[in-house]
Specification:
19% strand, 32% helix, elongated, four-stranded mixed β-sheet, 12 strands, alpha+beta
Length: 187
């Protein structure tokens, strides 16, 4: 009977590393085979070098490298580094794509929209709902039912449980309401 295999992490089970062990009948001289991702990095780098070689300016700099260095060593170095490097625990091509996306996007964002810099004019087409503040310096219409203690920030004239603004009165007046009584505030 076969021995039981202990799996300490399911990551190895679900993350299959595809490798090339032989090409036709020729076994590759690499122990453990060549990762398929490394072959992809090699081909992508080789294609990029061939395309960039045809461009003016950059092509002259690439042509300065000898052909073995240009077509074998550089793609092989990119493939090895790309396969072994795992920045932030991600594959190299995913990290590179995220890094390029980060550099290309607008720096300041809020709720998925670009945020303007300070002092930059912003067009506003809409209404802003406002509600008065209880600590404000203006008197607003209100009805307060007791038991409560009401302190006014502005001078008021109190008559028959009605409060009206009075510029001659001193601010800071308080009224104590018993249970069941109501105070009407009228500006």
């Amino acid at each position: 009977m076969a021995e039981r295999l202990v799996i300490r992490s399911y990551r190895r089970v679900f993350e299959i590393d595809r490798r090339i062990y032989r090409v036709d009948r020729w076994a590759l001289p690499v122990p453990g085979g060549v990762p398929l991702r490394a072959a992809g990095y090699f081909m992508a780098t080789l294609l990029a070098i061939v395309v960039l070689d045809g461009l003016p300016g950059i092509g002259d700099a690439i042509s300065a490298l000898s052909p073995p260095l240009r077509y074998v060593i550089v793609p092989l170095a990119v493939a090895v580094l790309g396969t072994h490097a795992a920045p932030d625990g991600r594959t190299a091509h995913r990290f590179a794509a995220d890094w390029l996306r980060l550099r290309a996007r607008t720096r300041r964002r809020c709720a998925g929209r670009a945020v303007p810099l300070e002092g930059e004019p912003v067009p506003w087409h809409g209404d802003v709902a406002l509600h008065w503040d209880g600590d404000g310096a203006q008197l607003h219409r209100a009805r307060v039912r007791g038991p409560a203690r009401v302190t006014f920030n502005v001078g008021v004239d109190l008559r028959d449980l009605e409060a009206r603004p009075d510029p001659a009165a001193a601010p800071g007046q308080s009224v104590v309401l018993c249970a069941g009584t109501a105070l009407e505030v009228r500006p």
